[in-house]
Design goal:
4 domains; globular; six-stranded mixed β-sheet; alpha/beta; single chain; three-stranded antiparallel β-sheet
């Protein structure tokens, strides 16, 4: 080739050496690389000013077939930020490429879909994702496109979930990549007046976050062939890359605009604001984790430890940092806060929408697990959801923000039936928030007293049926009404747990019925007006017998039920 006039800058001693050089660049295997990394490793690129003329000189028949098989030029295979990227390396003026895929997996030719569908379903079942999605084969193949959208959306959620990579070491701050990932997670949501980094990046890319979330599994025209989930992941990768640049430069805030422009293509005020917050406030506060040791020693010697708020920093509460302070909880009288009320309504609507989609009817009877720690961190998301599902809302006092009572949401405003909700509270919640126990009980009694038709007020319908049953058993009307309106249940006063872990750990059980009976024995203690943990097994069994769905909201991405071995609720 040199003799023929080609410029060859490097020769290779063996085929193995050439293969190694090719593998160091972009290859045709996309499985392990993000689009950003693929583009970074590629040596050959073509923007529209290059590939458009190449396409136009092809015969019309060839262009037509290419469009039918691969979509409009430039397609989406090996494409990132409107450029085509090619696997291979440049040696002088010669491009040495790897044989491209034959299109078995990449080509969207409809003729191959019948072959791919069973393969996809087999892989889904092999990973037990069919159980996660609660889908049967017949339902899947009846509308495979809808299934793919749902699968992609679910996998996007899984990939976007925070996963613990080890326990925190007291007094030791995260470093390098762990610090970068931590900072990006702490800024996923807005922190006070500081906007969300992810949402700011997406806005700078020309997208709306809510729109993308609603279409995580869909490829829409306005997304240029990408799914909403793919675009969200792309924004996350950009956020990581920008924070990594800052970390490499010792979080020097003077270089923020250059970092933003190099990764987004232009400056953006909101993105810069978040990155400045990371450099000037968040990173210094994280590095003050050494205060944990100093404050502990101060406390051991009877000294004064500075107080500080508690909460989940990854839930838009990064202002609680630094750690190492004598943290205080929340004012129980302010729960739920107005912000938690909005979250609770969203949780309730999401629950109702899912049940309507999956069953075609409202979840008339709902069990919900309520923990004290979650209530402290979220400022009352679960409590707000309970109120909203029942059809009542808090009344806040001006100035103090204290919840002073409950207000009925008119049926016309609610637009659905009032639902029957039974909270199972933890012992810690019972001890920490006695006012909320009373308030939830009050909400149930208020809703039960409304003069509304049974189809509009499920809680009242159930109460009236139970009252009739209790009266037949010999109770007077007032006693029967009180028995029928109990909705808050938990373990006996002074105890904690659900009664299941003891049996499991001691192996003192044989059947699921054994576990269930012990759970009921521990949990069938009613809390509310006139009852502080009185055992009410009949009332509790009635609630369980008609329950349509149970809910346990996870308020933090920092851990979940897979984080420990004894998650029994």
């Amino acid at each position: 080739m040199k003799k023929e006039g080609y410029r060859i800058d490097r020769t290779y001693e063996s085929g193995g050496e050439l293969a190694g050089a090719l593998l160091d660049r972009m290859t045709c295997d996309q499985r392990w690389l993000t689009p950003e990394r693929m583009a970074q490793r590629a040596e050959a690129h073509a923007g529209e000013e290059m590939f458009r003329p190449w396409h136009e000189v092809l015969p019309a028949s060839i262009r037509k077939k290419m469009t039918a098989d691969w979509g409009e030029v430039q397609g989406d295979l090996f494409v990132h930020e409107e450029k085509m990227h090619f696997a291979g390396l440049i040696n002088g003026n010669v491009f040495i490429s790897i044989q491209p895929p034959r299109g078995y997996y990449e080509n969207e030719d409809p003729g191959k879909l019948p072959l791919l569908r069973p393969m996809i379903w087999e892989a889904v079942c092999g990973a037990d994702l069919d159980k996660d999605l609660e889908l049967a084969e017949k339902e899947v193949f009846a509308d495979f496109d809808k299934f793919l959208e749902r699968l992609h959306s679910y996998l996007t959620d899984l990939s976007d979930t925070m996963i613990n990579d080890g326990l925190h070491i007291m007094g030791k701050a995260p470093e390098q990549d762990r610090l970068v990932e931590f900072l990006v997670q702490l800024t996923r949501l807005p922190n006070g007046d500081t906007p969300s980094l992810r949402e700011s990046v997406l806005n700078a890319m020309g997208h709306g976050y809510d729109d993308l979330l609603e279409n995580k599994g869909k490829t829409l025209l306005r997304y240029k062939g990408k799914t909403g989930g793919w675009i969200i992941q792309s924004a996350h990768e950009k956020a990581l890359a920008m924070v990594k640049c800052l970390e490499s430069n010792q979080f020097d805030a003077t270089g923020i605009n250059a970092v933003v422009e190099s990764h987004i293509g232009r400056t953006d005020k909101n993105v810069a604001v978040v990155l400045d917050y990371i450099c000037e406030i968040l990173t210094p506060n994280i590095r003050r984790v050494t205060d944990e040791i100093d404050s502990s020693l101060t406390g051991f010697s009877g000294g004064f430890v500075l107080p500080g708020p508690s909460g989940a920093p990854s839930r838009g509460q990064a202002d609680i940092l630094p750690t190492g302070r004598n943290f205080f909880s929340v004012d129980p009288n302010k729960i739920p806060t107005p912000a938690a009320w909005e979250v609770g309504k969203s949780l309730g609507d999401a629950l109702i929408s899912r049940c309507l989609e999956e069953t075609g009817k409202y979840p008339e009877n709902i069990g919900i697990i309520v923990w004290g720690g979650s209530t402290m961190r979220s400022k009352g998301d679960d409590i707000a959801e309970i109120y909203y599902l029942m059809g009542v809302k808090p009344v806040w006092a001006r100035g103090s923000g204290n919840v002073t009572g409950l207000e009925i949401i008119p049926s016309s405003e609610l637009g659905r039936p009032r639902l029957d909700v039974v909270p199972r509270i933890s012992g810690f919640f019972r001890d920490s928030f006695p006012n909320l126990v009373e308030r939830i009980d009050e909400a149930a009694r208020i809703v039960a007293a409304l003069n509304e038709p049974p189809e509009s007020n499920i809680l009242r319908r159930n109460v009236l049926r139970d009252v009739e049953s209790y009266i037949k058993q010999g109770m007077d009307k007032d006693e029967a009404m009180r028995e029928a309106t109990f909705r808050v249940f938990g373990c006996p006063s002074g105890t904690y747990g659900a009664g299941v872990s003891e049996l499991v750990e001691s192996k003192n059980w044989k059947t699921q019925e054994d576990l269930g009976n012990n759970y009921i024995r521990y949990t069938a203690h009613a809390y509310g007006k006139g009852s502080y943990g009185k055992q009410k097994p009949i009332a509790f069994r009635k609630q369980l017998s008609r329950m349509d769905v149970t809910v346990k909201n996870e308020d933090s991405r920092e851990y979940d039920m897979m984080s420990c071995t004894d998650f029994y609720i």
